[in-house]
Structure to design on (138 residues):
């Protein structure tokens, strides 16, 4: 029904570099592609979510979702369960860097997510897509 694996970075190829939902027909079904919201830091577009949510200062994320960028059609924050779980287990046999990558700043990310949830209204991706489909069909 929907996919959010598109990162509209400066270095990506193709037409999906913009932050708008794209709709495709896949067989008899539709697919909504919801790109991840980005912010610009030193001229580079960086996704707002996942590892970057844990890496970047919260003030940057907050400004993107509440500040001037809030005039966008939508803001999409994606998180994996391990992004907010400080108890992510160390994976035996996995490369050291991968374990650090999965665990970095997870303690603070739950606090930051809670702050963002208090300041912004969020809806699930499916709910948002359904509301847009209703608007398009009227």
């Amino acid at each position: 029904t929907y996919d959010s694996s598109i990162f509209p970075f400066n270095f990506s190829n193709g037409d999906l570099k913009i932050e708008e939902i794209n709709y495709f027909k896949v067989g008899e079904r539709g697919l909504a592609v919801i790109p991840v919201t980005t912010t610009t830091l030193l001229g580079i577009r960086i996704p707002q979510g996942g590892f970057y949510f844990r890496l970047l200062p919260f003030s940057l994320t907050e400004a993107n979702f509440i500040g001037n960028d809030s005039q966008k059609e939508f803001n999409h924050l994606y998180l994996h369960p391990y992004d907010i779980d400080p108890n992510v287990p160390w994976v035996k046999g996995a490369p050291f860097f991968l374990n650090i990558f999965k665990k970095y700043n997870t303690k603070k990310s739950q606090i930051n997510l809670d702050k963002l949830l208090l300041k912004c209204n969020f809806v699930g991706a499916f709910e948002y897509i359904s509301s847009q489909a209703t608007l398009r069909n009227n």
In short: The chain has a mean pLDDT of 79. The radius of gyration is 16 Å. Strands lie at 2-3, 22-26, 29-33, 38-41, 44-47.
